[in-house]
Amino acid sequence: MPSPTTQTSKDVLNNNFEVDYVIDYRFATTGKVEAEAKFIKLIKALHQVGLSTEVRNSDNCAVLIFVKVASDNHLKAEVYRSRVQDWLYGVRATAPEKELDNHLKQEPITDAERLRLVYMLITKPAEEGGAGITPKTGDWHGIESIFALHDHAFNKTWIKDLTSKTFLDAKDLTEIRNRFGEKIAFYFSFLQSYFMALTFPAIFGFSAWILLGSYSPIYAIVNAFWCIGFTEYWKKQETDLAVQWGVRGVSKIQRENPHFKHESLITDPITGENIKIYSPFKRLARQLLQIPFALATGIILGTLIATCFGIEIFITEVYNGPFKAYLAFLPTVILTVLMPTLSALLTDFASKLTDLENYETTDAREAAMVRKVFVLNFITSYMPIFLTAFVYIPFAQILVPHLDIFQLTVRPFAEDTKQMTTPKAGFKINPNRLKKQVIYFTVTAQVVGFALEVIAPYFKRQVFQKVKSVKANQAARRGGSAAPVTVDHPEESDFLTRVRTESELGIYDVSSDLREMVIQFGYLSLFSVVWPLTACSFLINNWIELRGDALKIAIETQRPVPWRADSIGPWIDALSFLTWLGSLTSAALVYLFSGEDGGPAGNPETIKGWGLLLAMFFSEHIYLLVRLGVKTALSKIDSPGLQKERSERFLVRKQYIEAAKGYDAAEAAAASGNGQGGKISRSTLEDEARNSTLTGHGTPAKRFWGRQRGQDDTISMGRQYISKAAPNETKKEK
Amino acid sequence: MPSPTTQTSKDVLNNNFEVDYVIDYRFATTGKVEAEAKFIKLIKALHQVGLSTEVRNSDNCAVLIFVKVASDNHLKAEVYRSRVQDWLYGVRATAPEKELDNHLKQEPITDAERLRLVYMLITKPAEEGGAGITPKTGDWHGIESIFALHDHAFNKTWIKDLTSKTFLDAKDLTEIRNRFGEKIAFYFSFLQSYFMALTFPAIFGFSAWILLGSYSPIYAIVNAFWCIGFTEYWKKQETDLAVQWGVRGVSKIQRENPHFKHESLITDPITGENIKIYSPFKRLARQLLQIPFALATGIILGTLIATCFGIEIFITEVYNGPFKAYLAFLPTVILTVLMPTLSALLTDFASKLTDLENYETTDAREAAMVRKVFVLNFITSYMPIFLTAFVYIPFAQILVPHLDIFQLTVRPFAEDTKQMTTPKAGFKINPNRLKKQVIYFTVTAQVVGFALEVIAPYFKRQVFQKVKSVKANQAARRGGSAAPVTVDHPEESDFLTRVRTESELGIYDVSSDLREMVIQFGYLSLFSVVWPLTACSFLINNWIELRGDALKIAIETQRPVPWRADSIGPWIDALSFLTWLGSLTSAALVYLFSGEDGGPAGNPETIKGWGLLLAMFFSEHIYLLVRLGVKTALSKIDSPGLQKERSERFLVRKQYIEAAKGYDAAEAAAASGNGQGGKISRSTLEDEARNSTLTGHGTPAKRFWGRQRGQDDTISMGRQYISKAAPNETKKEK
Question: Where is the Anoctamin transmembrane domain (chains A, B) (predicted)?
Answer without folding.
Answer: 176-648
